[in-house]
Amino acid sequence: MDDLLIVGAGPTGLMLGCWLAANGVKARIVDPKPGPTPETRAVGVQARTLEFWAMLGIVDRALARGRKGLAADFWVEGRRVARGEFGEMGAGLSPYPFFFLLGQDQTEELLYERLKELGGEVEWGVAVTEIEGNTAALGDERATFRFILGCDGARSVVRKAAALEFPGGTYDNRFYVADIDATGGVVPGELNIALFKDRFLAFFPLKDENRYRMVGLLDPTLDPETATIDDVRPELERLMKTQVQTVRWFSVYRVHHRVVERFRKGPLFLLGDAAHVHSPVGGQGMNTGLGDAVNLAWKLVEVLKHGADERLLDSYDAERRPFAETLVQTTDRAFELIVRQTPLARFIRTQVVPYVLPMAFRLGIVRRFAFRTVSQIRITYRKGPLAKGSGGGDRLPPLGEPAKPDRWQLVTAGAPTPQGESWCRDRDIDPVSRPGSSAVLLVRPDGYVGVALPSFSAEALDDYLRQVIGRPI
């Protein structure tokens, strides 16, 4: 019996495979697609994701392939009315204090490249058609695994096999998305947001000059099953005074908002869109799936490599599902403002947001709050079962060289004592000196504090590893 099957090799599945491979844990990864996604699809990459990629050693490659989103231009009824500067609004909060744009095609290419460097591979063109217990049918083959990890999207085969409810709903509106080359009215190299009484358009600049990921609200008189770029091109060219030169991809879709009732059922786990789907507001979807992958991966390593008790894996649901539920609620409220057709919503959309938002972003307190929220660095597991002591469950901001994805750290204000060094050596944990730290922190491989102590105590640290993490000592 193999240990792990990852179903789906999108960003979440590839991230999961990379983190496991970096720890010497191999997983079988299958996907029915012929290869990585060729379309941009998701384009926003948040600071927390870049911090994780730094730990995997690929952040510089990512930064070279994408573009910083440093400003947004607001349009109302076809007229440019305001410009808001983002800049490095998270300065001092993260090594990556900016909004970053990178297409999903580039993200998958980057992660797949890293996976292969770490000795992993994807079986492309292989679909999981049925799952019974921990046995999966892969074409004509049936194989049994200790755990099956569903990274297979909103129509997840793994979720259906687990017979879990996926409560929520679907917006009535239809939207379209396209990869285009365009020139003219839109401000090049910047995010362009166009607001109208009954619709909106958004242009996200990509790395190449004059290339954009475009999103719009489909005219309800158009048939979503047959609509093409030619149906919407005249409108967007007229409203935005923009000429579409090349269309690389066009698709019509609906927006869902759902969270599965449990992220784990026995040997089956759900991650990314298989576990939660929500509106695209704030660029949270793909990043949340990547965070799911990191959270579950280090716990699987503890169980499979270090012999931790399997109950540790229950903390994946306890830590990630509350965030997903909160995220769905907050993005839904923002999204409804964009699509709702009440007089008040139209007024706020066209007469308040484009004028007030740029002014608000000139205030340092607003910029920092917005960055903390959107970048996902505010995610905390304080209320989770693994957080102990004041500060337990909080992200430890990266300082200096990034940590490695396979390492725990013992963080102290000064150099560790001989006793502390000996403890770290015996437990294969990295001692780290961090000026300004007021406590002794045992930091998990995902960069979150596990336990915070007022002073070094080998007994208390061993109790945490043994009783909370379930690692045999």
CATH architecture of the largest domain: 3-Layer(bba) Sandwich
- The CATH topology name of the largest domain reads FAD/NAD(P)-binding domain
Please write the CATH class name of the largest domain. Answer: Alpha Beta
Low-confidence stretches: none
Given the helix and strand composition, which structural class is it?
alpha+beta
Oligomer state equals single chain
3D architecture notes:
This protein has 473 residues and is an alpha+beta fold. It folds into 3 domains: 2-66 and 102-166 and 260-339, FAD/NAD(P)-binding domain (3-Layer(bba) Sandwich); 67-96 and 169-257 and 349-358, D-Amino Acid Oxidase, Chain A, domain 2, CATH 3.30.9.10; 385-473, Glutaredoxin (3-Layer(aba) Sandwich). The protein is 34% helix and 27% strand. The chain has helices at residues 11-22, 47-56, 59-65, 104-117, 157-162, 229-240, 285-306, 314-339, 343-360, 364-374, 418-427, 458-469; strands at residues 2-7, 28-31, 44-45, 67-69, 71-76, 79-85, 99-101, 123-124, 128-132, 135-138, 141-150, 168-184, 191-195, 200-205, 211-217, 242-259, 264-265, 268-270, 276-277, 409-412, 430-433, 440-443, 449-453. The strands form 4 sheets. Strands 1, 2, 8, 9, 10, 11, 17 and 18 form an 8-stranded mixed sheet that branches. It has an 8-stranded mixed sheet with strand order 6-5-13-14-15-12-16-19. Strands 21-20-22-23 form a 4-stranded mixed sheet, with helices on one face. The two termini are 27 Å apart.
